[in-house]
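ok so i was messing around last nite and threw this chain in just to see what happens. nothing serious, just curious
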Amino acid sequence: MEPRLSFVTLGVADIARARAFYERLGFKPSSASTEDVAFYDAGGVVLALWGREALAEDAGIPDNGVGFSGIAVAHNVRAEEDVARVLAEAEAAGATIVKPSQKAFWGGQIGYFSDPDGHLWEIAYNPFMPLDAAGRVTLPYAAPAAEPADAEIARILKTSRTFAVIGASDNPGRPSYGVMSFLKAKGYKIVPVNPTLEGRKVLGLAVRKDLAAIRQPVDVVDIFRRPDAALDAVRAAIREKDRLGIRTVWMQIGVVNEAAAAEARAAGLTVVMDRCPKIEHARLIGA
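result:
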């Protein structure tokens, strides 16, 4: 057995909650992730999130809180037959075989052993995640979707009438204030959104707590939030898109979150990212 670690799998109670947490911390999900399991590169080791019950079932042990910590580490091998070989090496070294080498439901070969302290190890051959020359797992990532062309951005600006601005500020020195002022002067309807300013007015416009509090149609959700907070804003737009008629999610300059953009596109929304509508309006339509 080569002395290296391939995966750390955390058995979690709620996949969606766990994914949101780790992605807010900056972990980027692999395109191999699904609704049931998520994979992240963690500096050469893969962090995986899987349902706790599913992890226990995969290892063939009860999830009864006794003898199962909810965590498994994994050692991936280069060939299917290596799974049985490594398990035999582990057993000879003092491990207990928990699950002999066998076909996995997802198409690979797996087995489990526990070390003398009961820590669970998975030995796996995964043809969909090959090892590099150094033995590190190669996670697949989908190429970032192409940004909208100038013609598409111009179309958005020409056909949209209402912008909901998440992260609106009442400080004239803040970028969101300047963008709202510009768009309002160009004839767009603006709905400022900021829970800390709820009930107040900015540029004479009532500030809403969140998108759920808006009672008029919205074409574009313009996001002035930190990149790690953009996912929550996008998910709010997805929840309200049918009720409000939202067609576009626009993330301001410096707001880059590929996971958020991917979720928005999957929900049928157009995504503009790392751009400013004030700048693009001046560039494509005229000041």
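not much to say yet. The chain has a mean pLDDT of 90.
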